[in-house]
Amino acid sequence: MKWIISILILTMACATESPMNNDQNPAPISGQYRYLSLGDSYTIGERVTPEERWSVILTDLLRKNNVNISNPEIIAQTGWTTAELQEGIKGRRPKGPFNLVSILIGVNNQYRRQSTERYREELQELLQQAIGFAGGNIERVFMLSTPDWGITPFAKGQDTAKIAAEIDAFNAVAKEECEKSGILFIDITPLSRTARNDATLIADDGLHFSGKMYRQWAELALPTVQNRVNK
């Protein structure tokens, strides 16, 4: 367990401040749709290039489908829980309205053994914030489920069935809260579990996912997101 915690602390330390640089969040060109992407390591794309982040891939796919959208403004950091994402948002103060807002958060709540009740409460607040950033238009907000890190080499020797069950429990809460708010919930967890038998879907740290996996998430989200952003 000590080496697991050490690796996570090291990963988080290396990621500190990296999501906040100006190159990551270029100013949109006038007339372009604006996109705000909120999350943790899976959104910042730990161990992949900026071009391989799933939300960056999604904007590229949208542009190829004639949607004039800027690269996402990303507020995310490795290791963040729902509460830490809230603090990150306060620190950044993103200026809406945005034409598209996405959320992917929860894995660190599960990893740190926080309760689903706490997750529900904090997620409710985040979803309402996201709706506010979208100018009150729930059609412009969507959430991705939490992927299953238990299938990665990093989880070797751990109770992966327990990890999977806990991930599913957190995702059930997220789906329920999205449905209550009328927010689109996209389940990418089954895709994440295919990495159990495909090493190319795992990043070189043995814990996070590769750009190839992130592309699959973006491709899954594309049809529904494109339909909504065009409304």
Automatic annotation (TrEMBL):
Coiled coil location: none
Top-level division of the source organism's lineage: Bacteria
Single GO molecular function: hydrolase activity, acting on ester bonds
InterPro entries per the UniProt record, alphabetical: SGNH_hydro, SGNH_hydro_sf
SGNH hydrolase-type esterase domain mapped to chain residues: 38-215
Residues of the signal peptide: none
The protein, known as: Lipolytic protein G-D-S-L family
Organism listed in the record: Runella slithyformis (strain ATCC 29530 / DSM 19594 / LMG 11500 / NCIMB 11436 / LSU 4)
Organismal lineage: Bacteria, Pseudomonadati, Bacteroidota, Cytophagia, Cytophagales
